[in-house]
User: Which sequence fits this backbone?
């Protein structure tokens, strides 16, 4: 069965610093990978996705992620953090493609310090 | 407005009562999902549906019932609410690959 591990339940960065949120997955078939963001008292919003093709994926709000098959990783980065990036971030994997079930990581709460 | 909506947004109920959480999407997506979100557990899938009249269990289905008579609606019923079902419930729909989430229902069982 597929699984997702997000390293670090809490990450704190200074405004303007690099954001790096780590995600490793296990999957028996080529995965489809997703990052979602959740602001307080809201639902999850899709940040970006990898299905096929280019391994560096750009998303909304200046975020990007790189699919590295050899490392089974899909880390999320943003060159310069903004106060508005403070939220919880979830990595998810679907190894069935299509609209099958997603397996979510437990989330990483990002704090941005002024 | 197009999108996915959930109602009610907040609900307090007593142990043993039946409660139904509603989910409605305007995109005509085939797949719909119900999750619960709890501290320390992340998101856990309760039930999902591939199309009208087709539903299947997820990771934590006990104590919940779903139905899907129309593509756009996917209600979740707690037949006899328990305190352990206090949680935030999210509905999602999917056209292909990614899922789109509703705003959530915060349910408290006293």
Assistant:
């Amino acid at each position: 069965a597929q699984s997702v591990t997000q390293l670090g339940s809490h990450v704190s960065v200074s405004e303007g610093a690099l954001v790096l949120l780590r995600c490793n997955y296990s999957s028996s078939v080529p995965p489809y990978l997703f990052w979602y963001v959740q602001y307080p008292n809201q639902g999850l919003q899709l940040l970006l996705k990898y299905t096929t093709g280019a391994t560096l994926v750009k998303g909304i709000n200046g975020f990007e992620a790189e699919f590295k098959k050899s490392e089974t990783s899909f880390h999320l980065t943003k060159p310069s953090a903004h106060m508005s990036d403070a939220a919880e971030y979830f990595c998810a994997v679907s190894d069935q493609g299509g609209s099958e079930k997603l397996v979510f990581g437990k989330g990483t709460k990002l704090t941005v310090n002024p | 407005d197009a999108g996915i909506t959930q109602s009610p947004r907040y609900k307090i109920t007593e142990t043993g009562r039946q409660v139904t959480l509603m989910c409605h999407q305007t995109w005509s997506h085939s797949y719909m999902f119900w999750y619960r979100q709890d501290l320390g557990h992340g998101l856990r899938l309760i039930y999902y549906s591939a199309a009208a009249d087709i539903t299947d269990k997820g990771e934590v289905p006990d104590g919940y019932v779903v139905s899907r008579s129309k593509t756009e609606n996917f209600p979740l019923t707690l037949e006899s609410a328990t305190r352990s079902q206090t949680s935030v419930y999210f509905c999602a729909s999917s056209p292909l690959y990614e899922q789109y989430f509703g705003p959530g229902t915060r349910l408290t069982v006293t």
About this structure: Chain A touches chain B at residues 32, 34, 36, 41-46, 49, 51, 90, 94, 97-99, 101-102, 104-107 (CB under 8 Å). The mean pLDDT of chain A is 91.
